[in-house]
Recover the amino acids of this structure.
């Protein structure tokens, strides 16, 4: 199986770790208990006409994505189309009656594109904007990954429930309160996934983006930029220069970066984040996690990937194999920084940083010109 979010060695992208409601810096969100809203997200006003729909799921193995509503004089531009798009459409209609004219998919994974069909049903005139590579990826690799998710997700949720019933975690150790809350959320999200995704039509972009695209909506300028590769080669950032707000997709994921060995580009990721930081954003809306009112976490991500690249490059120069490189790379300080004492986050760091990030960096360091 190659499930989008589950604990399996072949997972390209998994985990991550939903957001916590916050009105301050990320550091505060990291220490506060995460409220679980019935619909799974809260809507936070970031600026005049700018609203972020932020997931409130606790850290876990199953997630859905954040979204952004940009309400203009005569229309709305939306960023990302999660599985909960039907609920997000209801939330948007409480804010405005303006039609949605454009929806930007920040990359090709299901939790950012599967809701396209719901948005088109609600707003027939909406046009989808995505990186040019989505046109090839979604009907091929994306469709295959979705089929595997549909086949495997209910079974895995059943395993989680069985472990909970025994008072055990997935490692067959006594389950902690943190893990119990996490597993319960995962099981609920699997149920929602199975209600929404099977049978949902794949909606390809109407507008392809390679380097960038600018929308002028009344007095508002909306820049859709491809700053470089990172989480995938298809990553787009939506930048509002007047408000200094950036919707980053999964280039930024809190509290643990979401890395896949086969689709991520760790060698390029630090430079892409430096380009993002050069915009000097006042607010960042990550693909998963709370809205960020400073750039500290983005810098932590950049430093993590820079260290991985440096250590892996040294291992490759010595002629180390991938397995030898894994053993040589020391990320203990970063594990402490990102995960702290949390068992859930420590496990995530091991599965979705230590393993796949080192492999991605090694592939880049040993690639022939």
């Amino acid at each position: 199986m190659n499930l989008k979010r589950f604990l399996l060695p072949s997972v390209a992208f998994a985990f991550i770790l939903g957001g916590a409601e916050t009105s301050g810096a990320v550091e505060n969100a990291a220490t506060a208990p995460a409220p679980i809203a019935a619909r799974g997200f809260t809507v936070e006003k970031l600026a005049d006409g700018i609203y972020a729909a932020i997931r409130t799921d606790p850290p876990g193995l199953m997630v859905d994505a954040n979204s952004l509503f940009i309400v203009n004089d005569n229309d709305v531009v939306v960023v990302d189309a999660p599985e909960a798009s039907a609920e997000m459409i209801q939330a948007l209609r409480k804010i405005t009656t303006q039609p949605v004219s454009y929806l930007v998919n920040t990359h090709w994974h299901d939790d950012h594109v599967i809701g396209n069909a719901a948005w088109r049903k609600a707003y027939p005139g909406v046009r989808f904007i995505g990186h040019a590579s989505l046109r090839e990826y979604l009907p091929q690799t994306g469709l295959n990954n979705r089929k595997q998710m549909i086949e495997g997700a209910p079974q895995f949720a059943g395993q989680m429930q069985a472990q909970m019933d025994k008072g055990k975690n997935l490692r067959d150790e006594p389950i902690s309160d943190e893990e119990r809350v996490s597993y319960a959320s995962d099981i609920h999200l699997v149920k929602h996934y199975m209600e929404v995704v099977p049978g949902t039509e794949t909606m390809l972009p109407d507008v392809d983006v390679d380097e960038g695209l600018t929308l002028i909506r009344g007095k508002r300028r909306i820049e859709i930029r491809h700053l470089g590769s990172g989480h995938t080669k298809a990553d787009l950032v939506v930048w509002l220069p007047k408000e200094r707000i950036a919707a980053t997709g999964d280039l930024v994921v809190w509290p643990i970066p979401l890395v896949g060995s086969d689709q991520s580009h760790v060698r390029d990721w630090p430079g892409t984040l430096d380009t993002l930081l050069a915009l000097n954003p006042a607010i960042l809306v990550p693909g998963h996690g709370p809205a960020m009112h400073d750039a500290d976490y983005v810098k932590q991500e950049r430093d993590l990937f820079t260290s991985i690249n440096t250590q892996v490059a040294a291992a490759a120069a010595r002629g180390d194999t991938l397995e030898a490189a894994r053993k040589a790379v020391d990320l203990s300080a970063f594990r402490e920084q990102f995960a702290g004492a949390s068992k859930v986050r420590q496990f995530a760091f091991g599965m979705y940083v230590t393993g796949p990030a080192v492999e991605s960096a090694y592939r880049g360091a040993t690639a022939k010109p």
Q: What stands out?
A: The two ends are 32 Å apart (CA to CA). The first helix runs from residue 26 to 31. Confidence is low (pLDDT under 50) at residues 1-38.
